[in-house]
Fold NUDIX family NTP pyrophosphohydrolase.
Amino acid sequence: MTAARSAGLLLFRRTGEGVEVLLGHMGGPFFARRDAGAWTVPKGEYDPAEPAWDAARREFREELGLPPPDGEAVPLGEVRQSGGKVVTAWAVEADLDPASVVPGTFTMEWPPRSGRTREFPELDRVAWFPLGRARELIVSAQTAFLDRLAEHSP
């Protein structure tokens, strides 16, 4: 069986204090009370027949409810997360107001074995973070994307 694949866009902007990245806090009950390890590059799964770049742009729109920004895409490569999922990401320099985000939703049975389904936002918060703070919050495997971005944009 092949590992699930996800693709996403990591937005970054330059400020007087340095580079900041836009991360999303994973929605749903499992991450509601967590901060460290609960933030992610806006991304989503895709079928192997779909080009990863197209999937990253589609997932950006689905996750944030906004069109993906234009601009030079900096390939950040792939990482394998602890659950086995392979994530491919690109960095794009752009600014975005987190208040403009209209997240997509997903449905799951909650509470477990209750027979009831509830709808949750894919991302319940979106925020800009300096690279150092982002490293403390992002899913651990995705710190490699931050390191690769820092190498590209000193």
